[in-house]
Each structure stands twice: as C-alpha cells, then as structure tokens.
Amino acid sequence: MADMKLRSVRKAFGSVEVIHGLSIDIDDGAFVVLVGPSGCGKSTLIRMIAGLEDISSGEVEIGGSVVNKLPPKDRDIAMVFQSYALYPHMTVAENMGFSLKLAGNSKSTIAQKVREAASTLGLGDLLDRYPRQLSGGQRQRVAMGRALVRNPQVFLFDEPLSNLDAKLRVEMRAEIKDLQQRLGTTTVYVTHDQVEAMTMADQIVVLHAGRVEQVGPPLELYDRPVNLFVARFIGSPAMNILEGVARKKDGTLVCEIEGGLSLPLPPANVIEGERVFYGIRPEKLAIADTGLDTEIQLVEPTGAETLVALRLGSQTINALFHHRVTGVRGERMFLRIDPSDVHLFSYETERRILVG
C-alpha cells in the first residue's frame, strides 16, 4: 500500500506537449479515476506512472520514493490493460503466475498465490483452461488475477472494461470496486465513461487537453462543477446549458435566453446585462400546469425513467423523469425550474459563478 504524488508532470512528443504540468495527490488506499474525453491525456498519464512512457519533466512519487528512473518491474505496481494481454498458449494458472515465475519465486509459492487470487476472483474452476476457452468477463478477471498475485503497492487500470458488453461492464465495475475495498490497495483507474467514474471512484480527476479541470469526490463534481467543461462532462444525460443575459423583469433579475424567454435566477453574483451560461440538470426539470412552455421532440422510455427531448425557443433541452411520461412530437409540455437547482457560469471565463 502506498500514496502517490505527481509533481508538475509534463509529457511532450517532439515539440507537441500533451501533458501540461499536472500535479495530483493520491492518498494511500484511495480509488482514483482519471476521466475525460478521448485525447485528453489520461492513458498517456497512467503509462507514465507505470513507466511505459518516459516523463519529459516533473516527478512521480510512489510510497515516498521518486520512481522516474525506475523500470516498470521495479515500481511495485501492477497494471490491467484494456486488451487483457493474456498469453494464448498458457493456462489461466500459468498466466496468473507468470510474473512470479520471472521474479524467481518457487513453484509452491506461485501455486499458493495463484490459488488465493483465483479464490478471490471466482476463478478456481478455470485454472486449467486457456484464454480462448473463456468469456470476456473471465479473461478480464484473469488479467486482474495476474495483477493481484503480485500484491503491489498500486493497481493501475487502463480502460479495462471497454471491450465488454453493457451488462458485463456493470457487473465487472462492481467486482473491481468490491475487490479494491477488500484489499485496500491504492488504485488509479482510467476511463472515458463518466458513469464508471461516478460509480467507482473515491476521487475523480477530470482531465481535458492534458490539464486537470477539477479533482474531488464524485458528488462534489456533480453538484458543484467548477467550470463549464466539467458541468457538461459529468452527468448522464448531460446538464442542459443555455446562453443568456441577466435582465430585470418585474423588479426581479431573470436570465433571458434567445426568443425572449425568461428563466428564474437564484441569488447570485451577477449584474444586469451580464452574459452567462445557464445550467440545469435534466432530472431537476419538473412537469407543471403552467410555466416554461416547451414542445416535445422525442420521448425515450427506459422503464423506470423517461428521457424527453424538448424544444425551448430555438434550442433543445433534455428532461429526465423518474416515472413514465407519455407524449407525442409537437405536443406542449410546461416545466417548472427551482432557482436553487440552477448552475451559473461566466460567459467570459466559463468559470462557476457563486450562487446563494
């Protein structure tokens, strides 16, 4: 077990810098998820931690020791890849024990550690099988077992569930989280799927274009995104974002959007005439008898919930209802917005505006 510190870490490929001086502290035993869109640098960063990519400048510290110059095998980390990376000619037991064999462990030690890991991961009946005889989920568990037998200070996961179907991804993310909680091993997990990040992480690091946008517990990022990028990225379905201007109406400050529609504003650090981005999460919109006049574009029932795309003036917004809603395209729907649920961002800086 170990904590980890990244200090002003940079990575450049030739003259192109892709990681721009990141500094992140990861506590001992924490489950930290690096999340962001494709090309944001998250996989490059985890490969730098693992020693599979050189660091252009800065320091990676694991358990109090700077590991920049250490090869991967000496960093006391274990990595699980998206592609499983299993040896097809080896059995499950041989795959899981291969790193221990290279390290010079005895056959009895290897067998014991493999049995323990297999028991933990529910692989006891599969030890004599070959990778081609396993399902995708079983292969991923073998890849995890290969990391587990080493008892490393840090687990690294690089988009390990991307190759699995939706149902299996849900099952496997629960297994990985449960395993990490039982072992208490410091874990850094890379994904582009913000639902995975929200459900698995103790701390989320949101990356964008090689920079850290926000670090914090999942619900903190969801409830108080520090800028427009995080607001749009965290949450599924995404937050509705509308451009508007603060205007006085009947003595009250409202947000006027295109088409002259007025949206309620919470008490906030905005002045009349100021341009803002107005954010409201889909599940915070409520059906009302009167209020915001919208037009149904599409109704998507999922069983327990209903997602409705609505035309508001010239823009489209989404509403998520935790009950069944019927309606057809072109039908009117009135919505109510509680001002306390509104997120405001500066039009100039895209930073969060203080509310309340």
Write a concise keyword list for the protein shown above.
356 residues; alpha+beta; 6-stranded mixed beta sheet; 5-stranded antiparallel beta sheet; 35% strand; elongated
Give the arrangement of secondary structure elements.
Blueprint: E1 4-13, E2 16-26, E3 31-35, H1 42-50, E4 57-62, E5 65-66, E6 77-80, H2 92-102, H3 107-121, H4 136-148, E7 154-158, H5 166-183, E8 186-191, H6 194-200, E9 203-208, E10 211-216, H7 218-223, H8 228-233, E11 240-249, E12 252-257, E13 261-264, E14 275-280, E15 286-288, E16 292-301, E17 306-312, E18 315-321, E19 332-336, E20 343-346
Parallel strand pairs: 3-8, 3-9, 6-7, 7-8
Antiparallel strand pairs: 1-2, 1-4, 4-5, 9-10, 11-12, 11-14, 12-13, 14-20, 15-19, 16-17, 16-19, 17-18
Helix pairs in contact: 2-3, 2-4, 3-4
Describe the structure.
Helix 2 packs across helix 3, helix 2 runs parallel beside helix 4 and helix 3 crosses helix 4. The protein has a 6-stranded mixed sheet, sandwiched between helices. Helix content is about 25%, strand content about 35%. The relative contact order is 0.12. The protein starts with a strand and ends in a 10-residue tail after the last strand. Strand 16 and strand 17 form a beta hairpin. The chain is of the alpha+beta class and about 350 residues long. The mean pLDDT is about 95.
Per DSSP, what share of the residues sits in E-state strands of 2 or more residues?
Answer: 25-35%
Q: Number of helical segments?
A: 8
Strand tally is: 20
Q: How does the overall form come out from the CA principal axes?
A: elongated
Extract low-pLDDT stretches.
Answer: none
**Which radius of gyration do the C-alpha atoms yield?**
24 Å
Structural class: alpha+beta
Q: Strand order of the main beta sheet, please?
A: 6-7-8-3-9-10
In round numbers, the mean pLDDT is 93
Query: What share of the residues lie within helices?
Result: 10-25%
Specify the biggest β-sheet.
6 strands, mixed
Q: Which H/E pattern describes the elements?
A: EEEHEEEHHHEHEHEEHHEEEEEEEEEE
Gap between N and C termini: 42 Å
